[in-house]
Specification:
By secondary structure, the protein is an alpha+beta fold. It has 2 domains: about 5-170, HIT family, subunit A, CATH 3.30.428.10; about 175-325, HIT family, subunit A. Helix content is about 25%, strand content about 25%. It has helices at about 25-30, 120-135, 175-190, 195-205, 245-265, 305-310, 320-325, and strands at about 5, 15, 55-60, 65-70, 85-90, 90-95, 100-105, 145-150, 165-170, 210, 215-220, 230-235, 270-275, 290-295. Strands 3-4-7-9-8-13-14-12-11-10 form a 10-stranded antiparallel beta sheet, sandwiched between helices. The chain has a 4-stranded antiparallel beta sheet with strand order 2-1-6-5, with no helix packed on it. Helix 2 (about 120-135) packs across helix 5. The longest helix has 21 residues, at about 245-265.
Amino acid sequence: MPEIRKDPVFGRWVIVASDRSLRPNEFRNLERGIQEPSDCAFCPGNESQTPPALHVIPQENKPGAWKIRAVQNKYPALISNEPTLESADGIYHKMNGAGLHEVVIETPSHFQQMEDMDARHIKEVFEVYVSRINEMKKEAGIKYVMVFKNHGRNAGATLVHPHSQIIGMPMVPIRVVQEIDGAENYFMERNKCVFCDIADEERKTGKRIVGENREFMALEPYASRFSFETWIIPKQHSCHFETTSPESAGYLASIVKEILGKLRRSLEDLSYNLVIHTMPVHDPAVKHYHWHIEIMPKLSFVAGFEWGTGFYINAVSPEDAAHTLNSGKKYGN
């Protein structure tokens, strides 16, 4: 059973899940020159290798075939059907690893990446996220649901087949708490949502915008932590991602496809983490916080200075990153 332990200095929670070390790593096969995904658990025909489907989008005109599947993670960080139990451990504090951990298999095609899908397909992936979050929040003890996608070896992925993950947690992560608190402080000072202000400011200069449509803006944030870090922000104020309408999901799919395509064209051997930042599922809507997506390409690794100080050193300014992405040029050429 996983265990969640609290750091007594910082107040952050750490999940200890030893079974995660048993996950298969497909990149090792690629290193040995094995390209065929004959034993991939996410490919059609191998459905018995995953837990039963929780949500299925069927393929049109192909009876019995699926387009998107959501299943429980076979190697979960948190385990469902367990009540949340907190206890002391000497001077420390811990709770059992109760929660939910699901995988969204985004396509039957082993090598089709999200930017290769048509916008309608990506829209359906986001609609699955919305549906699964709304199901998870019904479970007792779930306070926060995070959707994330690790693409590529350098981003922590162990499988090539396109997939993303959804974790329902019995606490709100400290990173999210800090972000919401910072947004609230900004609102108290200026009576404005910081994310709405960011969108307005970026529209004035245009220097860091890398994509835009009727409902969303994509930008390289002014104080980017990582080279080519990209945020996608709804133009209309909205706190909870899981309230996204099907129409808005279509616009979101369009801009995600555009941005991932730009990143792949400009960056060699693209690896990235995509994370949806949203309000805790049971918190009411507020004026100071705005859900958004953060995409963080992995061009370098966090090293000693960053770990020791909490500062980040970014080797590519957001203005240069935006220019590269908008020009379609390869970074470094």
